[in-house]
Each structure stands twice: as structure tokens, then as C-alpha cells.
Amino acid sequence: VVPPKPEDAIVQVIANTLETKLGKAPDGEVWLGDDSAVLAPPRPGDLVLTSIDATVEGVHVDLALASLSDVGWKALTVAVSDLAAMGGRPSYALVSVSGPPGLDFPLLYEGLVGAAATWGCPIVGGDVTAADQLVISVAVTGTSPGPPEQPPVRRSGALVGDTLLVTGPCGASAAGLRLLRAGHGPSDVHGLAAPHRRPMARLAEGWVARRSGTNAMMDISDGLSIDLSLLLAASGLGAALDLVPVAPGATEADALGGGEDYELLMAVADPDRVLVEFAAAGLRPPLRIGRCTGEPGIITLQGEVLPITGWQHTF
Amino acid sequence: VVPPKPEDAIVQVIANTLETKLGKAPDGEVWLGDDSAVLAPPRPGDLVLTSIDATVEGVHVDLALASLSDVGWKALTVAVSDLAAMGGRPSYALVSVSGPPGLDFPLLYEGLVGAAATWGCPIVGGDVTAADQLVISVAVTGTSPGPPEQPPVRRSGALVGDTLLVTGPCGASAAGLRLLRAGHGPSDVHGLAAPHRRPMARLAEGWVARRSGTNAMMDISDGLSIDLSLLLAASGLGAALDLVPVAPGATEADALGGGEDYELLMAVADPDRVLVEFAAAGLRPPLRIGRCTGEPGIITLQGEVLPITGWQHTF
Fold it and tell me: Which of residues 105-144 of A touch B (CB under 8 A)?
């Protein structure tokens, strides 16, 4: 006697996909299907980290250039990246999808679930509503375990003389987007467009950075120059850069202002220690790009003042 | 040397509003301005409850009939209601707002913050992006404290013979929406349209219900009949209703299918105990509407099979 609502069928497909790919909730937890999820608390003493990010069609993603699966991957990954940038680990995600009638939810969830499995971040709850434009909001919650002397790494802790490191070269996402717009490789998810379509969250890098005495850290979402300026502003400092780390296929402008690389930017007192710890963890060595100075708001590149450019979402 | 991004000004206004109205983060916590929020863990043994809800312009709210402040209130309150429906308490919220250029963020946040202060649920993080249509996603996290024998109240625990209670009469939101559409009282937030524009989360009621031995509970968001059918489906039962609790100004159809009332529906073995506990807490007595039966999927009203109607979001 109960007429099914259109959402019910979608929610059932989502629930089946999640359970198949991510497993069932452990005993005592409830992941989907009730008013809220029920979860075991973190270990006593662990701090809780939590962040929300929206991915909007036409602003962050172009559905002519990326599949819905890519969009799902990206929406979850960029939220996880915020926890990586604190040196934390994700525990679970909530996903809210607003989209037009006929949206291919299974394809979207293929990407969401793929990222959730990759980052160890099960999707424990969500919401599905109608909207003219696709908007995916992902809230990720995790923890910052470890001794109290290794708290979450904030943007504001950099000191004069700290060495600036990045976990990898920048601009790959902008270069990939340019390739896609030129009609190259739209189906080549593992190729040059992959950094744009399937970015990575630098979880292992952020974890090791926190345990190696990193003073300040953030992820590079809007471009190296604007994100560096944000870290420096939070710390009340300036910076003298020796080089811009440019990814293969990218330009220096891509690296400085392209955005969406999700590499981590770190300010550290002892870069040698950090490099040793990264090597011990089997991670690619971070790149030295310069050091922090006591001139707030001033960034120089090889002695010349650097104009700040950033990836601008339309607003 | 850093050109401010348009979002920066908005985020600063939001941050100032939040700090003024909701206070600063306690020592050791970080609420806004970094990659993620940092929060103290819940008390050892407390279960974590978490839920996300999207409120979409043109689907859930009509900006011709409600102010942005009302929309903000509603977006946060309906997410809190999901925790009320488990018998939990909110701890904090994340708010993601996607909206068109020129959106009046201070007005929207007036409502969000008003609800956050009312429900004791500080907004500790968020995201602001451009979109053609206003979409507000609110993720609320809280706890279900108390002894293990009083776990979060799920939808699936109802038993044959349980009495069905609701925390208040239904249909007020639908009746209020009708008044607004007819041009009555759009500025009268405390009047008959208030249940539609500024719904309440039944937190105290859910809390007392959990501690009074309630077997199953959910909030009524889509209308009494469809939400009752969901609770019964989760519990594998049917129901025999004696009456439909109709709010002043509403019709029986409003109460059964209007939706957005956010009263709590409960299945209890000992209704007298629940009424005593509600009275002891100074709460309005819940209304007895019928009892659970062993005929799955069948709901009767005074002996006649009840057609199931629900508030349909366009999809």
C-alpha cells in the first residue's frame, strides 16, 4: 500500500552499492537507512577533525570533460584532502547529492565509492534531493591520533627561517584541464588528464609530515601562490622562493595559479629530518621551494616580488 | 600584494557573525579558518550520531515566501531534527552554501546562527561556493550519551502491540505554506506560518523518549502517513490508527501528507510511563494515535485501510 517515492529507488541503489563496495557497518554501528548514522566514538584522547566541501557542476567540474564517476571521485577526495592537510586520517564521510532528474546516480557513486575505498573513508550517511544543477557536498570526519606534542598541523604555525616544502610539483591539474579542453585524452583517466579528473589526497604525506615536526601545512587547492599567501598570512610571515616546482606538461603559471593540485605545502624547521622520514615511509621526497621570512605579505621568487594569482571559482 | 578573493570577504563576514553569536572555540579546538575544524572527542563511551541534509531553493523552500533568514533556520533545524529522532543531542554543525552572486550571506547566516544557538549546535566549519541555485547542506554531529541499555532509538525496533505516539499535532507546516501562498502573513514569523518557516527540532522530546524506553522513533518530515509507513516497514509491522492528530488551521490531509512538521513519531510499550516522563520534564504530552499490528504494510484508520500520501519533493 506504500507507493515508492522516486528517491527511494535511488537510495536503495546507493545503499546496495555502498554495502557491496565498502562493507557493512561493524556491530553497534548504523551506517544508512535511519534518521542518522550511529558510530563508535574515536579512541579516547584522539582529537576529531571535520570538514565539508561542495563540488558544483559548472564551477568546479565540467560534465563535458569529466565523467560523473570522476566527479564523484573528486568530490570525496577534495574533502579528504582537508584532513590530510592537518596530518589527520579520515574515519567516515557523509554525502549530500542535489541533482537534476535522470542523474546517473550509480555512475556518480562509482566514483564516490572508489575514492571512499581508496582513502579508507566509508560513506555512512547521505541525502538525495532534486536540483537544477548538480551539487555534491561531502563532509569528512576523522581523527588526529598520536601524542599531544604532535597536534593537528595548522596554517598558522610557520616561523621565520622555516623551509618551505611541497609534496610534489604543481600545475598538473591545470595542464590536464587544458588538454581536455583541447580535445585530448578525455577517456584517458590514467594519462595526463588524470591529475585534473582524479586528484589524489596526500594522506600518507600529511601523516608523516605531522610526525616529523612540521610547523604549518595546508593543501594547495587554489594554486601555489595564493595558498602560500594564505599560510603566510595565518603565520604573519613572508617568503623568499628559490624555485617554482612545475609538473611535467605544465607551465610555471599553471603551477603558481592553476589550482586543484592538492599537493601539501609545509613549513618545517628541519627539512632534512622531514626528508629522512618521508624516505623511511617510502614516500616521494618533498621539494624545497624556499623559506619563510619576517616580512609579512611579501613573497619573492629569486629576489623579485611575486604577483599573487589564484584559481578563481566564479562568484 | 594579495588580491582578496570575493569569497574571502564573505567568509570573513561569516566568521565574525559566528564568533559574535556563538562564541569562540574552547581551548584546544579550532572552529574556522583552517583546512578542517579540530574538536575535542566525545566523552568515552558516548556513541556518535551524524547526519547530512540539503535544503534546495525551489524544492524545499520558496524564496518568494520565506526570507533567507528563515531558510537558514530551517536548513540547520531539519538536520538537528535527525539527531532528535534518535534521542541524541547535537554537538556541532558544518554548513556548505552554494548560491548565486549577490546572495545575502549575512541574512542567511542570521537564521543559521539563530538555529545553531537555539539547538546548542555551534557551526564549526563550512564552505562557500558559487551556484545558479541556492543549495545549503548541513552536516550535524552529536552524541547519544547515557547507559548502554538506552541506545539511540532506531526506526526498526517497534513491536506488535506498541502504542504509537506523536509529540504534537501534524499539518501545521502545510497549513502555514497555504497561508503564505494565499498572501497571508508572509512577515508574521510568529504567526500561523511559523511552523512552515521556522520549524522546531524536538530535541528535548527525543531525549526523554529515549530515556523512557521508546522502541522505535523517527521525525515526521514527509508527512505522518508516509513516515509511519517507513517506521513500520523498518520494523516489519502494520498499524491500526484511532485518530489523526490535526494541528489548528490544518486539515486531516495536511496532517497525513503535508510533511515538514518535524514532530517525532514513537512506538512505545508503556505509554503511561512515557507520558509521566514527558510531564516530569515539563514537555507537552505526546498524543496517542494508535498501535502497531502484525500485518506488515497495512495501516488502518478507524478500521479502514489508509492510503499512503506523502510530501513529494520534485525529482
Answer: 124-127, 129-133, 135, 137, 139-141, 143-144
When CB atoms are compared, the residue of B6, B50, B83 closest to A39 is B50
Q: Which of B52, B140, B232 to mutate to test the interface with A (most CBs of A within 10 A)?
A: B52
SS3 A308: coil
Residues in chain A: 315
Q: Where are the alpha helices (DSSP H) in chain A?
A: 6-22, 68-84, 105-118, 172-181, 194-197, 203-211, 224-235, 252-257, 271-280
- Whether B310 sits inside 8 A of A35 (CB atoms) is no
Cell numbers for A154, please give them: 595548522
3-state SS, residue B308: coil
Q: pLDDT digits over B176-220, tens only? A: 888 888 886 555 555 678 888 899 999 999 999 999 999 999 999
Residues A233/A297, Cβ–Cβ less than 8 Å: yes
As for the ipTM of the complex, it is 0.91
CB A219 within 8 A of CB A82: yes
pLDDT score, position A1: 39
Residues in a beta bridge with A200: none
Question: How far apart (Å, rounded) are the C-alpha atoms in residues B188 and B81?
Answer: 23
Q: In which residue are the cell numbers 575544524 written?
A: B37
